[in-house]
Amino acid sequence: MAETFTVSVSARVAAPAATVYPLIADYRDGHPRIVPPRYFRNLVVEKGGYGAGTTIRFDMTVLGSTRQAHAVVSEPAPGRTLVETEMRSGIVTTFTVDPVGPGACDVTISSELPRKPGLAGTIERLVTTRILPKIYRAELARIATCAAPSGAR
To answer: Domain 4-147, what fold?
Structure first.
C-alpha cells in the first residue's frame, strides 16, 4: 500500500447539519457555490448530481498551474460523511459534518494524498500542506455564508 499524507481543516458553522450537508452533497447547485472560484472552475456533473454515485469534473488552479480533476462521490455515512475520490491521482477528499447543537455543526474538509518519493515528493508535500489549508478555510467560509439563514445565493 502506498504511503499517504493528510491535510485537514475544521470550522464551526452557525447552521444546522441538516442544512450544511445537503449544500455540500448537491453538486448541481450547492457545491458550485461553496468552492472558492479562485481555485476551482468548470465544475461539471457527468452523472448523478447529489451524493453517492455522482461523477464530476472540475479544474483546480494552484500556484498558477491548472489541472483537470475527475472524481467519483461516495457517502460512507449519508448525512454526515461525503467522499470525493479523484480517479487519476488517487487523492481522497472527505467532507464530514458533525452536529454540535440545533443551530451549529462542525465541518471538516480532509484530503489524503499519495506521498511521492524523493526530493520532489518532499517539496510537493511541503507546498501542499501550506496551500490546501488556505483553500479549505476559504471553502469553509463559503459554506458558512451559503448555509446562513439569509441563504446567500
So the answer is: Alpha-D-Glucose-1,6-Bisphosphate; Chain A, domain 4 (3.30.530)
What is the spatial distance between Cα 94 and Cα 108, in angstroms, rounded to a whole number? 8
Cα–Cα distance between 127 and 95 in angstroms, integer?
Answer: 22
How many angstroms separate the CA atoms of 74 and 78, rounded?
9
* 55, 47 Cβ separation under 8 angstroms: yes
User: For 76-104, how does the pLDDT look when each residue is reduced to its tens digit (9 = 90+)?
Assistant: 999 999 999 999 999 999 999 999 988 99
Residue (of 30, 63, 6, 38) closest to 138 by Cα position: 38
Give the count of beta carbons closer than 10 Å to the beta carbon of residue 142: 17
- Whether 10 and 106 have beta carbons less than 8 Å apart is answered as yes
Q: Write down the pTM of the prediction.
A: 0.92
- The ranges assigned to domains in the chain are 4-147
State which amino acid sits at residue 53. G
Sign of the dihedral through C-alpha 75, 49, 153, 59? positive
